[in-house]
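Researcher: Sequence recovery benchmark, item below. Answer with residues only.
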């Protein structure tokens, strides 16, 4: 066959004689049904014998043979249309099969290219053609032209036509075969090319007869013949209509299947683009390298997906024999979701396992497996929770708009929307039993997509409430975090207040998973930290103004002086001063004021940026040493909300000479908080890996913020030792350059801690802590089971 195809140099009978002989087109005598059936069977064997990948083809037929053959046949088929009518008629029958053979070859090449493409984070659609265009050839110039030709369509109809059922067929098989034969015979001979599939070509056609004046349009998925020899694939294709067909006529999200056979599936044609094409088109209009979280897109597309899955689930519940195995799609990826051009609804296609992922078909699998549950890819028999995994991965795609090969929830969710990160991590664990640990319905083993949709919308509204209804969130790190420097409290008290108020309004309507652990406790500490920050800064600035003998018409101070009968001082608090503490005396008190004010600014920033709104206690009481470490970490975190500012108030109200000692105490507390929190983060990561949780990256280097946070401990220890040593020497009078050291401490607090560590690096370090706290909650739920 290949020798004859390679020998095609023209279109005359002499040029095509060898090919005619191979195809059985030179036999003399009348064309009988038996001879025609024998020829079709021979053609099928030829097509089925084509190696599916280029390496196997070239190993069998010579290096570069498939590429060269595709090029030769493309030139021959293209030039056929330019021949005169007589010559075209002379080789029309040869052209019909050659066109189908070429269509099969380019389909295999395209299948391999799609399966072998490499997808990296941020490369949305870089390796894809636009709007479903092929990666390896020009479909408009090759595939569309071939399928539109009457001779090629005739050969397609002959080769793919279903054979009548044998006398020993089971009654149900015979009925389905009869339905397939009827639908095939009712098909108009004119077909149009639509797109390539992973193992197929998809054509568009219509019925030969009109129904109510309209010829219904259908999509015809033809399995490439080399794949039809795989029995599992052929069986799944043959039984597709039986397994996933639905008699219901008012379904909005499921495509109606008309019939199926060993080599094809005929289904309703939906005008629209695949979700993969839609995502790529949207990504093309966004700046490269900038990851944003679109809450509007996440809500809009997320609701559509939940509705589609709920409909699939409902069909299975109403009619189990017609709703697929348990209402599970099993191959839910962007390429298997069509966005309807009519109403934007998601229409689910290609239900059932894709045998690329189970290695039934050799070759790569491309990017789509990142959306497919591990148990499906492993070929497990029971997959009732497979679509939950795909749902989580698709929601991640909707939020970021970027196709990614990463297997964990992206950092932008942990940084800007931890409530959504918590929801997504509850869906995408590799172990099916560990999905819905948090958002499950108490006392139920099954789940409802409608209830999950309500929980998803609730978490989304929480994020909107926290972010003041902002529809788009960006990663605030590096230079983008500079604007946060103007907010010493990082906006967290207001954010926690809005979250608490929104939860309170929702009240008992919240699901179990939506009830954030210790929400009131976290709000209280955030407000307390803000109050202490305000009080401390007010006190330091007030005492500085007193040192400078400034009158700024502070009516509150005048009222306190009037009520206390102390026109030159302040009642009560001035009595706390040591005997050698004079006010005003700006020369003596300036070092304490400088250092105190820097701590009063930096310490709340440290707490609010890293710890506010987070609690290690989410792990619960049943996790042994991890629960005990969580209690210690909780104490260390909450101490940092008030104690540093308490040290500042002590040197402001009682004794300014304490500033070196109190600075050392503050740095030691910061070092301890860093060490204890880092130990907790690492303990959670270690425990999650022992338990097999997959929501945390397997490599520490891929956990954003962990490496930076690890460096904080030695640097804070070094600074604590330096401040303690110099502070003791200053306090004991062995050093006398007080202003120099005070300026050094002040600049370190403001530049190193406030700007660099908390301001610029803090958002990324917080990602590591958020991830640990969310994982700890899952560990606690898992331990409770």
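Model:
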């Amino acid at each position: 066959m290949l020798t004859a195809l390679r020998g095609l140099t023209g279109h005359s009978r002499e040029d095509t004689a060898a090919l005619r002989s191979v195809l059985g087109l030179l036999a003399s005598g009348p064309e009988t049904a038996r001879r025609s059936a024998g020829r079709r069977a021979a053609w099928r064997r030829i097509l089925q014998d084509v190696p599916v990948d280029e390496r196997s083809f070239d190993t069998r037929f010579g290096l570069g043979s498939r590429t060269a053959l595709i090029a030769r046949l493309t030139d021959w088929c293209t030039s056929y249309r330019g021949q005169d009518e007589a010559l075209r008629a002379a080789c029309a029958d040869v052209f019909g099969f050659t066109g189908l053979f070429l269509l099969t070859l380019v389909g295999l090449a395209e299948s391999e290219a799609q399966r072998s493409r490499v997808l990296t984070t941020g490369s949305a659609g870089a390796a894809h053609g636009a709007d479903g265009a092929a990666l390896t050839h020009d479909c408009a110039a090759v595939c569309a032209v071939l399928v539109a030709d009457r001779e090629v369509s005739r050969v397609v109809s002959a080769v793919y036509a279903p054979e009548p059922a044998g006398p020993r067929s089971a009654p149900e098989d015979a009925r389905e075969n009869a339905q397939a034969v009827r639908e095939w015979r009712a098909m108009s001979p004119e077909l149009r090319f639509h797109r390539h599939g992973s193992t197929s070509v998809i054509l568009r056609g219509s019925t030969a007869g009109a129904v109510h004046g309209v010829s219904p349009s259908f999509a015809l998925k033809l399995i490439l013949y080399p794949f039809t020899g795989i029995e599992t694939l052929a069986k799944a294709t043959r039984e597709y209509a039986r397994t996933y067909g639905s008699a219901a006529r008012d379904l909005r999200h499921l495509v109606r299947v008309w019939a199926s056979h060993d080599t094809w599936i005929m289904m309703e044609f939906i005008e629209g683009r695949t979700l993969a094409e839609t995502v790529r088109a949207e990504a093309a209009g966004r700046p490269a390298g900038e990851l944003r979280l679109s809450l509007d897109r996440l809500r809009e597309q997320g609701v559509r997906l939940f509705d589609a899955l709920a409909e699939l689930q409902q069909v299975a519940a109403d009619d189990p024999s017609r709703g697929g195995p348990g209402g599970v799609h099993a191959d839910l990826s962007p390429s298997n979701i069509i966005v309807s051009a009519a109403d934007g609804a998601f229409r689910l296609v290609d239900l059932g396992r894709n045998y690329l992922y189970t290695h039934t078909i050799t070759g790569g699998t491309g990017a789509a497996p990142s959306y497919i549950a591990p148990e499906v890819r492993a070929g497990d028999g029971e997959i009732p929770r497979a679509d939950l995994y795909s749902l989580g991965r698709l929601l991640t795609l909707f939020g970021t708009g970027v196709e990614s090969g990463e297997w964990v929830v992206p950092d932008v969710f942990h940084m800007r929307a931890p409530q959504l990160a918590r929801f997504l991590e509850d869906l995408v664990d590799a172990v099916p039993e560990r999905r819905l640990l948090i958002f499950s319905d108490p006392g139920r083993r099954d789940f409802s997509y409608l209830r999950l949709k309500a929980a998803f919308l609730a978490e989304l509204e929480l994020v909107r409430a926290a972010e003041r209804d902002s529809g788009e969130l960006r990663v605030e790190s590096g230079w983008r975090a500079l604007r946060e420097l103007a907010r010493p409290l990082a906006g967290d008290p207001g954010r926690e207040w809005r979250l608490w108020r929104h939860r309170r309004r929702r009240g008992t309507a919240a699901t179990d998973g939506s009830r954030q652990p210790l929400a009131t406790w976290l709000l209280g500490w955030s407000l307390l930290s803000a109050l202490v920050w305000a009080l401390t800064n007010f006190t330091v600035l007030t005492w500085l103004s007193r040192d400078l003998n400034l009158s700024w018409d502070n009516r509150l101070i005048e009222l306190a002086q009037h009520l206390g009968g102390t026109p030159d001082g302040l009642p009560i608090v001035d009595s706390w001063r040591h005997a050698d503490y004079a006010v005003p005396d700006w020369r003596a008190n300036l070092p304490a004021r400088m250092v105190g004010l820097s701590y009063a600014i930096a310490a709340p920033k440290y707490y609010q940026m890293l710890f506010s709104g987070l609690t290690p206690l989410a792990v619960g009481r049943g996790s042994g040493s991890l629960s005990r470490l969580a209690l210690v970490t909780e104490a260390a975190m909450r101490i940092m909300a008030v104690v540093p500012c308490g040290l500042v108030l002590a040197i402001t109200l009682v004794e300014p000479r304490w500033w070196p000692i109190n600075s050392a105490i503050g740095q030691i507390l910061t070092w301890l908080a860093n060490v204890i929190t880092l130990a907790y983060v690492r303990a959670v990561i270690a425990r999650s890996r022992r338990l097999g949780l997959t929501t945390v990256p397997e490599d520490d280097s891929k956990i954003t913020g962990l490496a930076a946070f690890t460096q904080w401990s030695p640097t804070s220890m070094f600074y604590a030792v330096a401040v303690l040593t110099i502070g003791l020497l200053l306090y004991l009078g062995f050093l006398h350059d007080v202003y120099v050291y005070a300026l050094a401490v002040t600049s370190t607090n403001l530049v190193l801690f406030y700007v660099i560590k908390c301001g610029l690096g803090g958002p990324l370090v917080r990602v590591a802590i958020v991830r640990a706290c969310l994982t700890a909650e899952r560990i606690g739920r898992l331990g409770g089971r």
